[in-house]
Design goal:
The chain has 185 residues and is of the alpha+beta class. Helices cover 58% and strands 15% of the residues. The protein is built from four helices and six strands, in the order H-E-E-E-E-H-E-E-H-H. Helix 1 runs antiparallel to helix 3 and helix 3 runs antiparallel to helix 4.
C-alpha cells in the first residue's frame, strides 16, 4: 500500500516538473520559440483554437517566427490576437504569411524575467512539498487504521523525502538553466 502512495507521489511530482517546464517554455527570452504562442487563442468557426491548430508555425532563425494560416482569412485574425496578447510583439504580414520578429531583450527586462523564473521555480517547489505532505498524511492514516506497520511507515516517509529532494534539485537545475539562457542571449 505504501508503494502505491510512493508511486502516485512520484507521478504527481513529475507532473509538477512538466508544468514548470511548459511555463518556462512560454517565456519570451529573445530567442524565437513557437511555445510563446501556445496561450493565444483565435476564433475559428465559432470556437477558440490555439494558433498551431489553424496555421503552420515555424522558426526559420533565432529571431523570427513565421505563421502560415491554412486559410487566408485567418491572417488578420491571428495578427490581431497576437497584438492583443500582451507579448509585446509586432507582427507583419504579406497577405499569406505572418512574420513575427523577436526583438532582443533589454538588460532590465532580462532581470525581470529572471525574477519571474525564480518565482515559478519557488511555486514548483511549494507544489512538490505539498505533494510530499499529502503523501505523508496518507501513509499516517494507513498506519492508524493498522493497514501498515510502523516500520513500513518510516520507510515510506524516507522514500517520499528522497523523491522530494530529487524533484526539488531538478527544479533548481531547471531554473538555473533558464536563468543562464535568459542572461546569455
Amino acid at each position: 500500500m505504501v508503494n502505491d502512495i510512493i508511486h502516485g507521489t512520484k507521478t504527481k511530482m513529475s507532473v509538477a516538473i512538466n508544468f514548470l517546464k511548459s511555463e518556462l517554455g512560454k517565456l519570451r527570452t529573445g530567442r524565437a520559440s513557437p511555445a510563446i504562442l501556445d496561450d493565444i487563442r483565435v476564433e475559428y468557426y465559432g470556437t477558440l483554437a490555439p494558433i498551431n491548430q489553424v496555421a503552420n508555425v515555424t522558426v526559420p532563425d533565432a529571431r523570427l517566427i513565421t505563421i502560415q494560416p491554412w486559410e487566408a482569412n485567418m491572417v488578420t485574425v491571428i495578427e490581431k490576437a497576437i497584438l492583443k496578447s500582451g507579448l509585446g510583439l509586432n507582427p507583419s504580414h504579406d497577405g499569406k504569411v505572418i512574420k513575427l520578429p523577436i526583438p532582443p531583450l533589454t538588460e532590465e527586462r532580462r532581470k525581470e524575467l529572471v525574477r519571474y523564473v525564480k518565482k515559478l521555480g519557488e511555486d514548483g517547489k511549494i507544489e512538490v512539498r505539498n505533494i510530499r505532505r499529502d503523501a505523508n498524511e496518507h501513509c499516517k492514516k494507513l498506519e492508524k487504521s493498522e493497514h501498515v506497520s510502523e516500520d513500513d511507515l518510516k520507510r515510506g516517509e524516507k522514500d517520499i523525502q528522497k523523491l522530494t529532494d530529487d524533484h526539488i534539485k531538478l527544479i533548481d537545475d531547471i531554473v538555473v538553466q533558464k536563468e543562464k539562457e535568459i542572461m546569455t542571449i
